[in-house]
Amino acid sequence: MAGFSFSISLFFGGFSVKFFTDYTNLVLIAIVLISGGLLLWPALSRRGRGGVTAGEATQLINRRNAVVVDLRSAADFATGHLPSARHVEFAELQAKVGQLVKNKNNPVLLVCQTGQQSNKAVRVVQDAGYAEVHVLQGGLNAWQQAGMPVVKQGAAK
């Protein structure tokens, strides 16, 4: 295949444009496309999940006044939760979603123990008209593993 080469010519108003003149060019184009796809993969896969890390959640809360909604049971909420979190049990979310925030343009951060219930709740909150809804990836477990503070009976831990 040492001498293998081909060219594709396209005619636009009488002008001939050669796109591929050598097999090597095809390989280089394939490498560029594959590497570009691999670079974009993390951003695209994260967008699908809609989750934020503990650090990103802290920035949302501190810089953008995100409202934190804890979806766990009352007993779990009492054992420890994010500072300034509002408690709305997952089962009651549909009925209480309209009361979460006065300004529906404020970001909403949904938190549960592992992140699974929060992912299910995103659609409910978005359907209620909230513009920006985020999920804490890994839930409270990931928050605590990152060394972030939790509040237990009014005291930071």
Automatic annotation (TrEMBL):
Residues 62-152 form the Rhodanese domain. Gene3D superfamilies: Rhodanese-like domain (3.40.250.10). It comes from the Bacteria. Pfam families: Rhodanese (PF00581). InterPro entries: GlpE_sulfurtransferase, Rhodanese-like_dom, Rhodanese-like_dom_sf. The keyword Transmembrane applies. The chain crosses the membrane at residues 26-44. This is Rhodanese-related sulfurtransferase. The lineage of its organism: Bacteria, Pseudomonadati, Pseudomonadota, Betaproteobacteria, Burkholderiales.
